[in-house]
Every structure is written in C-alpha cells, then in structure tokens.
Amino acid sequence: MSIFIREAKVLDPQSSHHNKVVNILIKEGKIISIDQKEHRADTVIDANGQYVMPGLFDMKANFCDPGFEHKEDIHSGCQLAAASGFTGVALIPNTDPVVQTKSHIEYTKSKSRDYLTDVYPIAAVTLDAKGEDLTEMIDLHEAGAIAFSDGEQPMWHTDIMLKSLIYLQKFDGLLINQPEDKLLTRFGSMNEGIVSTGLGLKGMPALAEHLMIKRDLDILAYSGGRLHFSNISSKESVKLIKQAKKKGLNVTCDVSIHHLIHTDADLEDYDSNYKINPPLREEKDRKALIKGLKEGIIDVIVSAHSPQDEESKKLEYDLAENGILGLQTMIPALLSLSEELEPAEWVSKLTSAPREILKLPKVILEENSTTNLTLMNPQTSWVYDKDSNLSQSVNSPWFGQELTGKITATINGTKEHLSE
C-alpha cells in the first residue's frame, strides 16, 4: 500500500526538512520521497496546515497487564497508543506480578508483537518493587528489558540504589527512579501548601522529592552510571538537576504532561481525577517546569498514563487511587500550552530524546528511511467522552470536554492507523 501526504509541515529538528512544507510519498514501509512534487498513491492525505513528526514515543505508561486488565490491557493500550500518535511506548513494571523475570518480559513482548506501537518493557530493579533485593538484571537485559525501575515505587534503600548503579554499568543499563521520601509523604494525598491547608488534607511536601534527588545525585557522583529521574514536579528539582548536568553527571529527567498543565489549585472541588503522585504542585513549580523544558534541563515529556477503574476513583479524595490517563489527550494538552511552549520546542521531548536516552535507533524524517511518523492536525476539535475514549478507564480531568488537536495518521513501517 502506498500513502501520499500532501503539504505537511515537518517538525523534526534532526531532519533537513525541519519547518518546511513538503509532500511525502510512502511505499511498503519506506519514505520514497520528500519533495514538492505530486505523486500517485493508494491513499492520499491532504495535510495542509498539519504537522508531520517522527513517531511519538512515551517513556512512561502503564498498560496494567497482567493483573489489572479491567483497567487497561496490552490490546487496548496498544490501540490507544497508535490512535494517539505513539509508535513506541515504554511500560513501567507495576503489574501483578511485577515485571521481574524473563518470562514476564516475554509475556509483554509476545502480546504486543503484532501491533503498530512498539512496546518496550521496563523491568523492576528490586523484587516485587519493594526496594529490598535486586532482580537478575543481566538476565532481564538479555531478555529485552529496555531499562530498570521500580516504577511508581521510589528506590528508598540507599545501599540498593548504589549497588544498582554499579551493577548496571556492566551493560550500560539505565536506572530510572521516581524520587520520593515515602516517610515524608506518608498519609499525604496532595501537595503541601496553602491549598492543602484550606481543604483540610494532609500534604506531601516537595522536600520529599528534593531530598531524594540530592541523595541520588551524590550516589551517582560516587558510583558512576546512568540515572534518569521520572516525574519531577517542582522548581527546586529543576534547579538541582541543572546543577548536576553542569557538573557533568550522566543524569536525565522527565516531566509528566499533567504537571505542565495543572496545579494544586485545580483540587478545590476535591476531584480525585486530579490525584496523582507526585502531586500537582503550585503555579511557580509549573512555570519552572516549562522553563526547564525550554532550557533543555528536562529531557522528556511523558504521559504518565495510569488507568484506574471507577471503584478506585469514585471515593473520598484521600482514599482514591493515584493516576490520570495521559496518552489520548497528550497532543491537545501540549497544544493548549501554545502561549508558553511552541510545538518546535516540545517535539524532540516526545520523539528523539526518549529514544536517545533508551539507546533506541534514531527516527528521522528523511528519504529512504523506514517510515515512523505521526501526522497531527492542530485545528481539529473533538469531544473526549465515552464514545471517543479508547481506554478501558475514564480517570481523566479532560473527560467530557471539547479538545483541540487530533492525530490524523500514525505510521510505523508497513502498519498504519488513519483517523476516520
């Protein structure tokens, strides 16, 4: 099958066609030409006013499979990801059982093999993600684990943190940690501040994040290795990582789309759909995260896609589970930030940067390359409701709203998803 994309604007800083309006001819999974000419094809897409980018990559999502398939599974997750523009997704290990053996890696790889979206399992660093005993990381790496993390659970054990960074150097493995001192956030349900005080909810201080980042950076300086901080959420965290990068430490980080959009002020109505960990911080933190992206301190934007069933969310706020859906609303959410963050400023954070950190092959929009691209219409409006929702869960503060920005096509090799 051949596809002709007419008059799309390229968003790919790696490509010689960046910021140019081009015509793209695709045949049998290859980009045949990128030029100004007309070509015949089985499918023609008039992309005037649209953006074409390398296929989006999400470095942090949970498809809940195995164990929690009623929330999401690999089938629904892969279909959702493809329709949302993602040709690659890295999955955290917080399933039941935790992804910690070669058979668990093979389960995820085999179930996702036939889908458009390439799925990369992240294996647990410690058994059952409890932070106490190391998994067989060399075996997991050879089985196909793309990185190592306890996912939603922070690595609280200092000695385990040190040993992990040393151990992973045997194969240049990446350690991912979500920084949080659990003793400081215990029983908390939102950011500690004026809003939490007014709502009468126990707060989770940003200090819990800063202390762990400081600890981990000191250990990294001592041990060497590669460390990635997941879901940083505060102004001070950006500052600490900026200083570490200036010192030459091999450290990277990501921020969730939720922390770029929302703040703790959105919790005035006790809406549990805003409840996540790390919690939504203050406006000064949100602005610092935006600035960190612009300055290149924050390397990646993630969806932090975390499906929860209604029984887990329709509870008193402090009893509800953490988590927000993130994949399907990623593009509309980013476009809503247009006054602060232009598409050219975030495209690499969702395409080249996560692939580089995970040491995956580059994806570039050039002639004779394997097709791996996302076409997005920034003007299309649509309503995010039960009819358009592609997840098995509905825990999103965007649910029921009209959004602007929609994926027109996602193509990965010979597999494509074209919007209706």
From TrEMBL:
Residue ranges of domain Dihydroorotase catalytic in the record: 49-237
UniProt keyword annotations, A-Z: Pyrimidine biosynthesis
Domain of life where this protein originates: Bacteria
CDD domains: DHOase_IIa
Pfam families: DHOase
UniProt key word Magnesium: no
Record's keyword annotation contains Cell membrane: no
InterPro entries: DHOase (IPR004722), DHOase/Allantoinase_Hydrolase (IPR050138), DHOase_cat (IPR024403), Metal-dep_hydrolase_composite (IPR011059), Metal_Hydrolase (IPR032466)
Protein name: Dihydroorotase
